[in-house]
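Researcher: Please generate the 3D structure of the following complex. Treat every line as part of one assembly.
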Amino acid sequence: MAHVAAIETGKAAAALMRRARKAGHGPKISAALLVAPLLLFVLIAFAAPIGSMLMRGVADPEVAPVLPRTLAALQGWNGTALPDEPAFAALVEDLRTARAAGTLPLAAGRLNHDTAGLRTTLVASGRRLAAPFEGSAREAVLRADAAWGNVETWGAIARARGPYTDFFLLAALDLKRDAAGTILPVAEEQAVFRIVFVRSFWIAGMVTVITLLAGYPLAALIATARPAVAAVLLFAVLLPFWTSLLVRTASWMVLLAREGVVNHALVALGIFGAPQQLLFNRFAVVIAMVHILLPFMVLPLYAVMRQIPPLHLRAAASLGAHPAAAFRRVWLPQTLPGIGAGCLMVFIQALGFYITPALLGGGADQMLPYFIGFYANQTVNWGLAAALSLILLAATVLIVGLYGRLVGFSAVRTS
Amino acid sequence: MAAGSDTLVRFQGVEKSYDGVRFAVRHLDLDIARGEFLTLLGPSGSGKTTTLMMLAGFEQPTAGEILLEGRPIARLPPHKRGIGVVFQSYALFPHMTVGENVGFPLSVRGIGRAERDRRVARALDMVRLPDYGARRPSQLSGGQQQRVALARALVFEPPLVLLDEPLGALDKQLREEMQLEIRHIHERLGVTMVYVTHDQSEALTMSDRIAVFRDGAIRQLDTPQALYERPADAFVAGFVGENNRLAGRVAERDGDMAAIVLADGRRLWARRADAGAEGSPAILSVRPERIAVAAAAADDLGENALAATVAEVIYLGDHVRVRLSLADGAEITAKRPASAAMAGLVPGAAVAVAWQPEHAVAFAP
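Model: Done. Output below.
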């Protein structure tokens, strides 16, 4: 009997659970339907383009349709010596077909990203091998262009087999594979990106530290000022938000120009005898970035500081703590979530700065986004641009993850 | 407590003004004896908190001097005074555990780990939170947080502990529990405590002496009993406990006593507090529990008795409150033990009210 009763109770409980689930589902489904259009919009307008752009960093679709026979012939080639006659014959066949179809420049452009000069090699060979010839394809090809006698030329074609490649990612880290597939550092005069990475992180870090040092006292002042004064100060901090980044950067060009306000002031004060070159250097980049990013440091700090009761410092003093000790042991630790949030926001944004270094910096002050722009717009090497973006994104995710691990996102108090 | 005993704190002509026009505290002379529990009682804005803050060092007096153990401290920063302070909002540091909070005053004094742990454990034992050292303040109830704040203010063994309305944020039951607990800690440690409150029953429960503040000055400084039984003026009588007030004039003075004539001509004798000369207006004050209510005809009233009509009877379990209308329309309230309440006490009944002359006090208005 007891057993039956237990089953009955179990049934009743299950039914109740079902009803509860049903009752709970209704609002959840309608909420999901309400946010669905927005979610869809974000997916279509934001996630999908970024995703497809980043995909270009690993996709390699150009060469395979143009040189299918050559790639088939190179299957199993170990990359230590020139390939055999069939590969040369296949290349001749492919070049003729591609030339007739007009698809040769596509593959030529892609191979030129790998090894400069391959565009010419491919196009010229296509032209020279168009006419029928006698004898071995190998000799004819080598006659058409001496570059075919180099193993690395064949290696470039083999590497561009697709559909996916690590070529761009490796290139973004100043690495490459040789014909045999071994990863090697690129020649020293071609290695630029590691320096750019280090420089980007260095500038972003410097800007973050300076912003923190400047923003902390400012935030503390706003948080402890009388409400009327605090409102004015906060307004002053937020004011730069109302003008565009470009305008703010341009105004620094005006200020720091050779005939600009700062130079005039410095000369008038007798600090310099003649106007100095203040633009197009690291100093100009950093000072403008600090100015632009300061609100992102001040606001989270202010939000956290406002929550600390002023009574805490009094309590600390009454317990015998010197004002410096009270600050260090009671006030400062309570602002750590604000410091973390502010530094995170400033550092990540600083890593992605493009216009400011481009306009105010010299050649040695350009940050990673400049090179992304350069490869996307100037050389139309989207693969490399995407690979650089991917690495920048990965670095950012790594930093955010590290922050979440060390500080924790729940510690970030807003409002 | 008695005059001439060891004085720990002395206020000498202390004045405080925030704007240079009005006084927050005007000319305060006050001696606090070693080991006493002194309460500063008064309505908000009466200067009691300002007095406490000057003692703690968070406010500077505009004139006068404060002596702690004979040492002038008016210009000494708070962290050098060695006075424990307990705030109404606890002011526990949220980023530290309970143990770290209590250990804070010890660690800023450079006391080593082992000694610190020992004293923290002892302080937490004292406030009956022995196993709470590892918790965060946010995990504690309001009453527990205030106990931690108390332990933190006591752990460095200050000679003087200031408490600024420490129980104001707690509910009634917890407040009464904590009142006794603080009182017991005070008795056990023998530490001097200065306590600020606007709650007169709290002041009566806890204090050795109470200083009643009004408009930046002490109106009366006395033991709870003296304050209740012999208030110095009408304000103190009204602020400490309930009282009934009857307006009249001084008709006659006889030593400590004065006869007050009410508007309807009846004469009532009372102890004279600060009532003026003959003919000057006066207020006669009687505590509700001192008023006897009798079913008597108005014409055979005895001395110090008035005819009245019962307006309302409120039963409160252990006692009844009787609201009465006097002949001239004035209202008074009597408080009688429920067991002694008479049968005919119903609204509309004509009764006589009376009290002993020494239980009434005559004040200047």
